[in-house]
Specification:
With 268 residues, this protein is an alpha/beta fold. The chain folds into two domains: 208 residues, NAD(P)-binding Rossmann-like Domain (Rossmann fold, 3-Layer(aba) Sandwich), CATH 3.40.50; 42 residues, no CATH class. Helices cover 47% and strands 14% of the residues. Helix 4 links the parallel strand 4 and strand 5. The longest helix has 29 residues. The structure holds NADP nicotinamide-adenine-dinucleotide phosphate. The site of NADP nicotinamide-adenine-dinucleotide phosphate (NAP) has 28 residues, from helix 1, helix 4 and helix 6.
Amino acid sequence: MELNLKGKRALITGSSSGIGEAIAKTLAAEGVFTIVHGRNEQRGREVMDEIIQNGGKAAVAIGDLSKDESAQKVAQEAMQAFGGIDILVNNAGGGGSLSWFDASTTDWANAYQQNVISTIRMIQHFAPLMKESGWGRIINIASGVATQPTTAIADYAAAKAAVVNLTVSLAKELAYSGITVNTISPGTIRTPGLEKAVRGIAAEQGWDTDDWSELEQRTAREIWPNPTGRIGRIEDIANMTAYLASPLAGFINGANYRVDGGNIASIN
Ligand SMILES: NC(=O)c1ccc[n+]([C@@H]2O[C@H](COP(=O)([O-])OP(=O)(O)OC[C@H]3O[C@@H](n4cnc5c(N)ncnc54)[C@H](OP(=O)(O)O)[C@@H]3O)[C@@H](O)[C@H]2O)c1
């Protein structure tokens, strides 16, 4: 399928690793001029170099999005790289405390800064510019725990629920502008952080194996069960992002797409 993305310009926050890195590489392979972002400059530049070596166009913008000043600098650098942004993927985020009462009020506020206000900072910068150009895509990365929280990482889950919510209000706010706003809610996706967590669980549970495919299968059946029977790949999220970013997805607006192998037991 031709996605008609060639020559569009995208900022993918948090693309120095994990899901964001796959999104940046997938969009670049579709001919999108990509801006790789993260706090770690070296890793950001490595991703950018790989995209360029593979024939893509890329630049970097480096900085912490949980603070106004550094986020403003990121937005300006991203803007200058290719003269504008058509696609904004708010992927940077993460964190969260292990249990409800371990999380201090500062932890709750930090989770909100890290996952929600970081997203709002980029939206406030780029949405008015997209509005002027009459076309744009804003894709926010939330999580399955936004819909079905557990007792763990409650601060993170509540922050991600706010991301799902603000996506809908923003889609309405930007009515008739040519901009669509959608959320993708990943399930468990294999990243270095997730793999470490799975290996920790395996040790705790006394599973007698180091073999990743066995660990993955048990995790996807016993710990975070889903009917597909595997942990997600970063490309699973990247492919959905590429479609939502494309002109083909122009009638999809204010939606939340679960990409979780069926983990979240909800009809919608
Ligand atoms: N992996 C999963 O199973 C999973 C499941 C559901 C949702 N998600 C969501 O998917 C997104 C990506 O997750 P991931 O697993 O790919 O994470 P990851 O591998 O830890 O990567 C996170 C990325 O975000 C950047 N980042 C984090 N906080 C930032 C901040 N305050 N300012 C600027 N950059 C920041 C990191 O930059 P540096 O490393 O360069 O500092 C990195 O590029 C997150 O929003 C996460 O909540 C992940």
